[in-house]
Structure formats: structure tokens, C-alpha cells
Amino acid sequence: MKNSFFSQRKDFKKKSHAVIKSHYLILVFLVLVMTLFGTEFQTSLSGWRDLTPGSETDSEEKNDPGNMLSAQDVISPNAVLQEIIHGNLASGSEKAAQNAQAFREKLSGSKALGTTNGVLGQVVNGLLSGQLFAHLGQSIFTITRSHQMTAFIFVIGSFLWYTLIFILLKNVYSAVLRRVFLVARTYRHVNITDVTWFAVVRKWLSACRVLFREYFYVFLWSLTIIGGFIKCYSYWAVSYIVAENPSVSPKEAITLSRRMMNGHKMELLKYQISFIGWHILALITFGVSDLVYGNAYRLAAYTEFYAALREEMLEREPDCSRILNDPCLFHCPDRITLAETYFDVVEEITELHENKVEPTGWRKLVADWFGIWLYSSEKKKAYDRQEERSLAIKHNKLCMQGEAYPQRLSPLWKNRNESRPEQFSFVRNYTVWSLFLLFIFFCFVGWSWEVALHFMQTGQFANRGTLHGPWLPIYGTGGIIVLILCSRFRK
To answer: Can you give the chain as a three-state secondary structure string?
Structure first.
């Protein structure tokens, strides 16, 4: 009889440490995004909430002269939003103005913490102070001339906005990240673009549907006394199932998770409790230990638990392979299979070297470092295609060597020549003429942005800037500088 998963926890944790060590930067970064996004691990930020404007503090902290902004100075932007929703537009605007004044007085000398100049600075301060909500409310009131209608539009708009963000991004990110962790535990090479896998195989909406159904069921069960707690463990594997097979139906994913977790719910609970030391360390360090290691480590450990759970399920019910249909996520294929799948890589490498297009002398330096092309347009197109293809070949070579996830072996990999993630072109050079057109475009976008923002703030149309026509050169200059100075770092 096999040992229980809980008895294997030391092996799981040892493997998890190795995974995090091999892919530390990318995994910790993606988990940090998850934490800031509010998908999971929100408690890791609880130690910092007292340091943010509008957070609840005790009486001593409120009166501490060392605080740059006390709770008496700054009101939470959510309070401004609540006032507008309740129809108190004047009160909301007054609170937003109070916040803005506090920012100008307290933070004007600190460029790191606040700024009052520039459009982007206005946007940041507008969000932090709640002025953005106030200006939007004033604009809606100007059109509707009704406080009740303004509040109604805010309620409906806020509900739809947060619902769409939750369904399309926040909820599905849990499955996206779990797929990255599954790839990281099996392969040496993990790319940040792996988070786009659902979109590459055109299954993002399918994954959203499954995960929203799971969330809805857990919410309904949570209305009972203990049902929500039990169903959280019954449906625990759904996000991992979707990570492996985003085309699965909601009913199949939920049913399979229940069967997989049958007899393992208590084991998972005890496994989670075994991380109590990390939670205590997080309390002592105000969440820093979780942000820099603990969260990613625990997620890697849970991924090991799921991998064992999946293996046991396939042994017990082989028919589940119809849903759990991506073995390459858990075991690297043999070299023969990889060589047969990526047979064209060697030929493409040879062809690339034989027909290499490359500038020479100082033109090569300008093209490599600044992305500026000074040759003919036909030669530029050939060079751009060559650079894109070299990146694709590099990725396919890693797959052929068993160091990266072999996408071509995925059951969802169809129309290979039409939907290849490596065909996304982020490496290209620009002619002087192209840079000039981009400069004009950035100038126009900047002008449109400032005019729209000024209209929201004052309700009046104004031609921003000191020049005639719809353009602001500072935006064009900034855009071109970013393009040419960051060209070397795109790869």
C-alpha cells in the first residue's frame, strides 16, 4: 500500500525548494503579481496596510509627527467612491479635494512618494486621492443633471468593471500561474511568455468559464454552515486541471476534482497546516518573507501535492487521461520523440546561417543597440524576419533538447504554422522614416490624452500645449527615446 501524501510531505517540500531555487526570479515575480492583484496570498500585504494612506491606525500613530501622512490627513479613495455611490457628490468631491491638498502639502518635497506636476503625476495622485472618481462623477452629473442617476451609473459601472476584471483576469490568473509552476517543476527553461498559453491556444474564455463556475459553486456552498469549507477542498484541484487542459468543460473539471480529492481532503488540510512555521515567520517579518520566498515556495509545494494526486488518479482510473491529457507537463518526453517532433530545427539553423543578412560596421552597431535601420527597406524586412526566426529556432532548440516545454506535443497545439507563440514580433528595427511617423503618432496620442484628462477635470475643451495643431512633442520625444534606448534589451 502506498504511503499517504502527507507522509511524503518532506519529499514534496524538498522538490519545491529545488524548483524555486532554479527559477527564483520569474516565479517570485509572478506570485508577487498574483498577490498585488488580489488573486491569492492577500494576507502577505497585511503588514503594510497600516503604512498606506487611509488605513486604520491607533491613536498614537495618527498623531505621530514622524508620519508624512496620517489618517487624519488622508481619506481612503474608497470613501470618496462610497460617497458618490450614495448620491453625496458634493461630499465626495470635498473629501477628494482634501486628499489632494494633503498630498500637495505633505508629499510635494518627496518625488518618490508624490508629485503634483505632469499628467502621469496627476493620474497617480488622482487615483490615490479619489479625485478621479470625483471628476468622473461631476462629468456624469453634468450630462444627467441627476444625483440619483449619477449614483446608479456608478453602481452599475463599478459592478460591471469589477466583475469583468474578476472573471477575465483575476480568477483565471490562478490557473495561469499554476501552469507556469507545472512547467517549472519539469523543465529547466521557463519563459515569462508562458503566462499567455491560454491565449495562444485560444482557450482563455473557456478557462474563465470553468473557474467562474467553480467560484460560483463555492460561493453558494459557503452560504451553508460548513459546506463552503468542505467544497473548497473538494474543488481544490480545478485550477490545476484547467492549467493542464483549459478546454475541459466546467462539469468535467468539477466532477474530476471531487473524485481526485475523495479521501485526500484531510491530507491536504494537514499539509497546509505543516506550513505554520512560514506563516509565523511572515507575521514576524510583516509579510516580507512571504513576498520574497514563502508564497512561491508554498505554491510549488502544493503543485507537488497535485502532481502526486494526478498520478494516483490516472493509476486508479485510466479513463481520466481523456481530460488529464498533457503528460508533457509532468514528464519530459524521450529524446527520440522530441527529435522526431522538432526534426526541422537543425535544417532551419543551417539555412539561417547560409542566408544570413547582417549589416556591417557602424550601421550594425546602430541597428543592434538602437534598433535604427539605415539600409534599404527590402534588406530590413529580410533582417527582421531573420531575427524573429532566430528567436523561434532558439526556443525550438530548447524544446528539442528537453529543456523547455514542447508546445508541439500539446493536445491543443493545432494549426502550428498559424498560431505559434514565437511568431509574436517584439524584435524589429525601424527606419528613420518609420521613427518620424511614430514620433507624430505619439505626439497625437499625448495631445488626445491631455485634452481628455483636462476635459474630465474641468468640463472644458482646451488645446493643450503651446503649439498649433493636435500634437505635443514631449510625448513623441519620450516614445522615441524608449524605443531606441530599450531596443537592446527586448530579447
So the answer is: CCCCCHHHHHHHHHHHHHHHHHCHHHHHHHHHHHHHHCCCCHHHHHHHHCCCCCCCCCHHHHCCCCCCCCCCCCCCHHHHHHHHHCCCHHHHHHHHHHHHHHHHHHHCCCCCCCCCCCHHHHHHHHHHHCHHHHHHHHHHHHHHCCHHHHHHHHHHHHHHHHHHHHHHHHCCHHHHHHHHHHHHHHCCCCCHHHHHHHHHCCCHHHHHHHHHHHHHHHHHHHCCCCHHHHHHHHCCCHHHHHHHCCCCCHHHHHHHHHHHHCCCHHHHHHHHHCCHHHHHHHHHCCCHHHHHHHHHHHHHHHHHHHHHHHHHHHHHCHHHHHCCCCHHHCCCCCHHHHHHHCCHHHHHHHHHHHCCCCCCHHHHHHHHHHCEECCCHHHHHHHHHHHHHHHHHHHHHHHHCCCCCCHHHCCCCCCCCCCCHHHCCCCCCEEHHHHHHHHHHHHHHHHHHHHHHHHHHHCCCCCCCCCCCCCCHHHHHHHHHHHHHCHHHCC
Decide if pLDDT at 333 tops 90: yes
Model confidence at 287, in pLDDT bands (50, 70, 90)? confident
C-beta of residue 341 within 8 angstroms of C-beta of residue 407: no
Q: Which three cell numbers stand for residue 477?
A: 520625444
Mean pLDDT of the chain: 80
φ, ψ of residue 372 in degrees (nearest 5): -105, 125
Number of Cβ within 10 Å of residue 400's Cβ equals 22
Burial class (CB in 10 A: 0-12, 13-18, 19+), 234: buried
The residue among 366, 365, 361 whose CA lies nearest residue 432 is 366
Chain segment 366-376, per-residue pLDDT in tens: 877 888 877 66
Of residues 367 and 230, more confidently modeled? 230
* pLDDT for residue 151 is more than 50: yes
> Nearest Cα to 251, choosing from 236, 238, 270?
238
Give 267's pLDDT tier (boundaries 50, 70, 90): very high
Residue 301 pLDDT more than 80?
yes
Q: Tell me: pLDDT of 111 over 50.
A: no
Question: How much is the average pLDDT of 269-282?
Answer: 93
Q: pLDDT for 178-223, tens place per residue? A: 999 999 999 999 988 889 899 888 899 999 999 999 999 998 998 8
Length of the chain, please? Answer: 491
C-alpha separations of 139 from 89, 134, 146 in Å? 11, 9, 11
